[in-house]
DNA sequence: CAGTGGTCTAGACCACGGT
DNA sequence: CCGTGGTCTAGACCACTGA
């Protein structure tokens, strides 16, 4: 290729590109602005499209870019802070704007979940599908597993499944009283099933938050929530949604 | 390619491959076992190496695989749970085994950090480099920013920089009394500088934990810690390091 | 429809680890 | 030194969006 670079750089091209583009984003582009298409950009930098894409991938991972098939690549807004540790997250009333029940049914608990719940693997539990919307965008999809034993007062008046039933389960769970929570955060990839709802392709990176709800010394429920890693910053603590300038590349010197 | 698959699958090859490999890992491989090399695997599945690599990348992201140049691809152990919200994380005595001070110096605070600390951008603050070791492996690198105003009692007896000075800063910070913390977790990529320490290539995914320490109503310090996303599960809450079966693909139905 | 990003291929060479 | 994964290329075709 050309003789543009004169550095003795053992630095990969895509990484250098990432840096160059990152700086360009800071200085020459504004949020929402659309970048030149990948073929043009690759040509402009004198690299193959695959290499250019590797750099774009990084920037998307860091929440700097947003790419949509058929549309283009745009400059992403700073990540939104979503509060994960609010105390009354599951109270249907208080959290109506944060979580909405999509569906509910009785289903077998996966082995990992069954273990945490202390029920037999494959035992049927309530499975609530919930969705979290923030700033007009779905930022998280969740599966909430509630063993029948945790909601003894649940009547059969409501339908056996559906959103209404789900809300009834939540109400009853809340009525039992929850005295503690326990969370873990790890990196994962979107299941094909959640991909559409989160408007991402299968395999896109997500932050998986596993929550255990305790009641009277036992694990009353387990929630597995997947947050879009590109657009979300999970906040914990007393001051939930303080706006912080985004931290693209882990931290600067 | 061959006529092995008979599905009308609009599913990408790499995604299908990921699933197949994932199941194979569950049933036919044990932790630490070394997989066939990428060229062989690609040939075996009748795909290009790039496609095979895309599948491996996914599995590595999910913490199922570990790839090392010059060595090979091995089956990764379940992610280790690292407690992030323990109350006395910064007490030098109690956390000696978790965090170790690598270095310390006075340096300009990056804009984002300066904003949180309430100091002028570029103002000189104590910058502590710390490292967290778990199960004999470095799982996190951290930069702790402490403005001079937060450690008024700091004497000039110790060296102006170096690990010893860092420990002195920590001691003094602890002596001032911290009355609260505030955390945010987001996805990022390893800086080139941290890459070596974490034994990862630049750009590898990390969980960036930004912590603000409060004292007497003001932000006394800010820490930016980057955890290896492939090997770590961040835990919050009362029961820190309970072993949970890993959750590879966000969650199973 | 044209234009975008997403997938896939079949090569090549490089950087690194261990022998 | 060889074998490994990591980078890079130059193409091709597909899936989706919006005019």
Automatic annotation (TrEMBL), chains A, B:
PROSITE patterns (UniProt xref): HTH_GNTR
One MF term in the entry's GO annotations: DNA binding
Domain annotation HTH gntR-type: ranges: 11-78
Pfam families the UniProt entry points to: GntR, UTRA
A biological process from GO: negative regulation of DNA-templated transcription
Domain of life where this protein originates: Bacteria
Keywords, alphabetical: DNA-binding, Transcription, Transcription regulation
Keyword Membrane found: no
InterPro entries (UniProt xref): Bact_HTH_transcr_reg, Chorismate_lyase_/UTRA_dom_sf, Tscrpt_reg_HTH_GntR, UTRA, WH-like_DNA-bd_sf, WH_DNA-bd_sf
UniProt-recorded name of the protein: GntR family transcriptional regulator
Lineage: Bacteria, Bacillati, Actinomycetota, Actinomycetes, Kitasatosporales
């Amino acid at each position: 290729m050309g003789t543009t670079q004169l550095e003795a750089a053992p630095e990969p091209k895509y990484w250098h590109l990432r840096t160059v583009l990152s700086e360009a984003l800071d200085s020459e582009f504004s949020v929402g602005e659309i970048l030149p298409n990948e073929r043009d950009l690759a040509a402009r930098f004198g690299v193959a499209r695959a290499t250019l894409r590797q750099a774009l991938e990084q920037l998307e991972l860091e929440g700097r870019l947003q790419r949509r098939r058929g549309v283009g690549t745009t400059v992403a807004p700073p990540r939104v802070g979503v509060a994960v540790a609010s105390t009354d997250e599951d109270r249907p009333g208080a959290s109506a704007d944060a979580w909405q029940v999509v569906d509910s049914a009785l289903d077998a608990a996966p082995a990992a979940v069954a273990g945490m719940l202390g029920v037999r693997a494959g035992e049927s539990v309530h499975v609530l599908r919930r969705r979290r919307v923030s700033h007009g965008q779905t930022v998280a999809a969740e599966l909430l597993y509630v063993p029948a034993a945790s909601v003894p007062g649940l009547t059969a008046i409501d339908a056996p499944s559906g959103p209404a039933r789900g809300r009834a389960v939540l109400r009853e769970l809340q009525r039992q009283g929850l005295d503690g929570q326990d969370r873990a955060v790890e990196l994962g990839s979107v299941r094909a099933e959640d991909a559409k709802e989160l408007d991402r392709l299968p395999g896109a990176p997500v932050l998986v938050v596993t929550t255990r709800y305790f009641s009277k010394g036992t694990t009353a429920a387990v929630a597995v929530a997947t947050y879009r890693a590109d657009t979300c910053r999970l906040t914990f603590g007393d001051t939930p949604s303080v706006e912080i300038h985004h931290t693209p590349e882990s931290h600067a010197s």
